[in-house]
């Protein structure tokens, strides 16, 4: 055999071990070369009489994260090329054959006549978990890091290497569907309890356990290859089976709003596959897989959530000529809501933190937040007491600015007040060295203005986190007029160290993310004032693919904050810059009714002590007109809610705030949950086509006002048939 990605050895009992350990990679992935080697291993095991069975395990810290998605991107490109050269039919056939290679390979492994066992520690996801499902035995380590699952849906795909068929033959159908719709990662014990794996043992006993099983079961077959095999939820057309499908359809709609073709394909592949013998069922799955691979949703999601995200994480925007910074000590000034979170993620990354507030009590309170977060992790079994002690040991909470001496970077998260910020900038710069970088977490104050208070504007940059800091993946890095490349490099190195994803934007009011999401909230407010029933507004947001409706979202970020931002915009840019209807609504909500949002349990919703939140009935009295729900066009509401965000993204791109479509897209999905199936704000426009988008904007502008008027660049793109990605490529 000619192997570079596996080590292969056979012990004196005739049990082989294939250790998957790809050179030069921290994580094993499935690539065409890997598939070729696995094929050789299967032939060797099947053909060598001395070998009784084979364990597949990993030589890395984890089993594997699954397939290399760029391989699938390559397949799509091949299709386009073939379709052009040889016609659609030849391209389709070749696409189908290529896209089912992995599925056939796994089936070959499963039926080669010798048993295979997967010994799994750490992450085992997607195509890698599908490999283990084709093994007759799966044993996983009891380690907290061990997870199995099929997360393909998260990038617009579905498990196309046997996953839909094998999982639905191992688990109750409802559970299998749920697991694949959600793309859940399942820990060791629940995986065993639901029948996905056979055993859970300590890590050091994994391979021995798998070998014992192979020795005891030399004739093992997959359960579905036994003629007496019965489906866990019984036959489809049985009373029990019929209990499953009507609710399954409802769950599908509830979870996806029919926005994800891949989720619909899961439902169809399982429904059809369970009525067929396994080989035919796998073929049905392959047909759906080939179809899904060609959808624009899969293409856009793979591009934004896999390829672009990886590129941004690896420093696509980092100035290459600045050597990597060796960040050791980071200051955080302001230990409130945001500062406490920033201190936590920084200490979590192993960096020393100096957490400064006005007095010791406030600083300690900020540090206590870290104590609470790690304690929650300990309760969930994800951390140990020693981890908490070590993490807290890295946070020095103090009221003394002098403690900031020696910091490589200081992030400021004090009150959103230019005077307070100016004072803090002066105090921090008096304490830190001349090369240290100063980052401001302001959400509304232009960084260039703040940098005027700095003696070293080259070292001054915006580092904008989203709340809650420990959960939100996005960080916006804002370049002020005079920000230098060393500051940018340091900020990006910091974001990478704390394992978040950065986008780099130029300075403007609201930067990028808040401008787009602010429009989403405003559109909800305006719909309300037009007399659209609030429940329909909220539903339209969710059906459009947003994580929550605009009114709900406003409650989360605070209604008074929206009012404050509106007033500040009016003060700076004049009457014309704000919408009168929105101003009236916010003034009544905040000033007349004291409805500030979730924080005081009174916002667009009521938040009763017991039971779920409910829309506040008083909203009806704030509105002069009440539209008949039957007269409201739901599709138009959905368009308004997405178009207003995408259009704002287009404006930021034209203004040079966002300079790379990848950042606009990735930032929109991970920053404010913009309909992930679209691939992000600019992909949404590209997928619709600039001409169609401009037409839609113009129709909405005619009916609802100037705010929908398309910007110049978009109109030009529509005329010239350009796209953001096409144009960006041309420019590169
Ligand atoms: P907060 O009121 O919870 O915390 C501010 C902290 O700063 C308080 O602990 C206060 O004691 C401290 N502080 C005030 N003056 C100080 C001084 N002179 N020296 C040291 N500490 C001082 O506010 P927050 O919500 O954490 O917001 C902080 C910053 O983060 C603001 O600029 C805000 O715009 C920005 N931001 C907030 C959010 C959010 O969702 N809350 C999101 C992104 C960015």
TrEMBL record:
<keyword id="KW-0456">Lyase</keyword>
<dbReference type="GO" id="GO:0016509">
    <property type="term" value="F:long-chain (3S)-3-hydroxyacyl-CoA dehydrogenase (NAD+) activity"/>
</dbReference>
<keyword id="KW-0442">Lipid degradation</keyword>
<dbReference type="InterPro" id="IPR006176">
    <property type="entry name" value="3-OHacyl-CoA_DH_NAD-bd"/>
</dbReference>
<dbReference type="GO" id="GO:0004300">
    <property type="term" value="F:enoyl-CoA hydratase activity"/>
</dbReference>
<feature type="domain" description="3-hydroxyacyl-CoA dehydrogenase NAD binding">
    <location>
        <begin position="329"/>
        <end position="508"/>
    </location>
</feature>
<dbReference type="GO" id="GO:0006635">
    <property type="term" value="P:fatty acid beta-oxidation"/>
</dbReference>
<comment type="similarity">
    <text>In the central section; belongs to the 3-hydroxyacyl-CoA dehydrogenase family.</text>
</comment>
<comment type="pathway">
    <text>Lipid metabolism; fatty acid beta-oxidation.</text>
</comment>
<dbReference type="GO" id="GO:0070403">
    <property type="term" value="F:NAD+ binding"/>
</dbReference>
<dbReference type="InterPro" id="IPR029045">
    <property type="entry name" value="ClpP/crotonase-like_dom_sf"/>
</dbReference>
<keyword id="KW-0276">Fatty acid metabolism</keyword>
<keyword id="KW-0560">Oxidoreductase</keyword>
<dbReference type="InterPro" id="IPR036291">
    <property type="entry name" value="NAD(P)-bd_dom_sf"/>
</dbReference>
<keyword id="KW-0520">NAD</keyword>
<keyword id="KW-0443">Lipid metabolism</keyword>
<protein>
    <submittedName>
        <fullName>3-hydroxyacyl-CoA dehydrogenase</fullName>
    </submittedName>
</protein>
<keyword id="KW-0511">Multifunctional enzyme</keyword>
<dbReference type="InterPro" id="IPR001753">
    <property type="entry name" value="Enoyl-CoA_hydra/iso"/>
</dbReference>
<dbReference type="Pfam" id="PF00725">
    <property type="entry name" value="3HCDH"/>
</dbReference>
<feature type="domain" description="3-hydroxyacyl-CoA dehydrogenase C-terminal">
    <location>
        <begin position="510"/>
        <end position="607"/>
    </location>
</feature>
<dbReference type="InterPro" id="IPR050136">
    <property type="entry name" value="FA_oxidation_alpha_subunit"/>
</dbReference>
<dbReference type="Pfam" id="PF02737">
    <property type="entry name" value="3HCDH_N"/>
</dbReference>
<dbReference type="Pfam" id="PF00378">
    <property type="entry name" value="ECH_1"/>
</dbReference>
<dbReference type="InterPro" id="IPR006108">
    <property type="entry name" value="3HC_DH_C"/>
</dbReference>
<dbReference type="InterPro" id="IPR008927">
    <property type="entry name" value="6-PGluconate_DH-like_C_sf"/>
</dbReference>
